[in-house]
Input
Amino acid sequence: MTATDRLDPAQPRVEGALKLTGAARYAADHRPRDVLHAVLVGAPVAAGTLRGVDAGAARALPGVTAVLTAADLPEFPELSPPSAVRFMPFTDGRIRFEGQPVAIVLGESIEAAEAGRAAVLVDCEPDPPVLLGSGRREPAMGDDPVVFDKGDVDAARAGAAVRVEHTYEQAARHHHTMETSATTAQWAFDQGPGDRLTLWDSVQASSTVIPVVSSALTVDAENVRVIAPHTGGGFGAKGYIWPHEILSAAAARVVGRPVKLQLRRSDQFSNVGYQPWMAQTIRLAADADGVLLGIEHEVVNNAGLVDTHVEPATEASKSMYAAPSIRLRQLIERVSLNVPTPMRAPVEGPGLWALESAMNELAESVGLDPLDVRLANFAETSPADGRPWSSNRLREAYEEGARRYGWRDRHTRPREDGPWRIGHGMATCSMGSFRFPGSARVRLSRDGSVVVESNVHDIGSGAQTVLSQIAAEELGVPIGRVEMRWGDTDLPRTGPTYGSSTTMGTGSAVAAAARDVQKQLADLGLDADALDAMERAGIDELVGDGSFALPGEAQMNGDGEGTPYAMRTWGAVFVEVGVDPDFGLLRLRRAVGVYSAGRIINPVTARAQMTGGIIWGWGKATMEESDQEPVYGRWLAKNLSNVAVPVNADIPTDLDVSFIDEFDEAASLIGARGIGELGATGVDAAVAAAVYDAVGVRVRELPILPWKVLAG
Ligand code: MOS
Output
């Protein structure tokens, strides 16, 4: 079968109609018979001791079926990753953050459960909360490679002609997915570990829900099934397993009825994670030509009082520039907030805010163009360990980006437009290449239809479309003949839908499965007119299996470790920003992003992903901020009305996104690396540089709000 002329890579989303017509069903759209609606009751203080919960009035309300407190729930064991928390709520009487669940109201309707929630009286002995900036700081421990030393940084600094040292901060910010996290839990009882549990869950990695839920609730892992097709946004908030997923199942077991628990928007602030507050100190040592002699990068991010999240932003400095000496240190600060979690463009996203800002400041110190200082420090091989790159077309990305933007002659154009002073900034973009093992099944029927099966999720990035395309291309059938089955742990297990990893890993598994089908056809001698031949041979269906494996059967791989190659994605972003010097207002006027990320399977979904990343970066740079209220220690905003994010009016039409033509055969069978989060990196540093270029004010604390511009 050859039909490549029938394949248009610019395939619109196969699930588009389902979403536009409302037919797509999300986790909380499932209504098992007799389902109860659950609402969490949170602690009203950020720190203290729970004295008691009086649910008498709530239980008396019509439609309130039960109010569960710690006494009604099972004892939960200490949990391990990918549980986001080690300690479930309800395990002791300590309150460690505002909104920590202390009761669960179950109602026949959501309205009844909400009314019940308002009637529950929670009695706490408050303690002074630990505020950001005053918490205990400790070295980050754990699996993340957060301490790194290469060469002699102190000697490099002592001998350097130029030293740049600054601290760059960024506010905490929440993911704010449109669909708040939700879990519907239904049991089939067997009076013991043989109980079977089905969860309809809004998650990014359903297969990882099973071990956490089964150990939390003492139920056999094979008896837990998670169904999670459409997920209404993730951004990392649905990557790990959060207590509400366990609590919905625990409540359903206690009352013997299905339970649906969808977090209220306000509960979302404290019951799932967020990107932590961070401060990063960068010390660069360079010679007079701007060639780096040393990079020192020290990061602190906030964590909870007992639960830990390390945001390893130092990773960015390990892999970016050809510095002979590198020192990386990572701390956490424990405060009275819920635990943070990865958020779209974690790790390098924050890390490049600091490193790329410092590189822009280095450029100024040595009198070089910001682009030239990066070219002068281009890493021909991995600075961490000298491995060659699997593929790295960053130089072309710089050049093409500069050409499309008109970077080299930027200052020959007008510097003002009405009230706006115009500034230009640029930065390098980069992410590690998270790869996870995966598997997929492809079925070819003799009527020519194809079914692709793999347990991915669709968090809005177009996974089904791209995976269907890969199967269609491999088998030479029109994409309209391909049906994708996904979002169910009964399907072949594959990697999570996070870490920019899905297309690369699961896409390769789908391609391998399709090639297995082709091989079976060939083995049967059914090559030329396969479908006719299947018909004649009486074969209804050929089933191919494919997998994507990592060296040593590793379960994750962040930069090609265990292979001869270091793997990263790359790009360059250039932004034009207008600054109103009287009011401190900022406007994004245009942006150019050019990326090196391996083969691009679908230019439509890829462009949408990168455009979204740039918008996301603009929001981080100029708007988003979750503040800890300075007296009570709770999140200040508890609904979306206090949350500033970019809207259409903030975004110019002139977002020019393109990709370097590339096929990375070391990274994956299909030649792809990951793009999901790459576009969101570097934007903040480019924007800060553009503000400085426009009005001469360096803001090193995100978001760049008008008052900070005016204060400068
Ligand atoms: Mo993203 S933080 O990998 O969902």
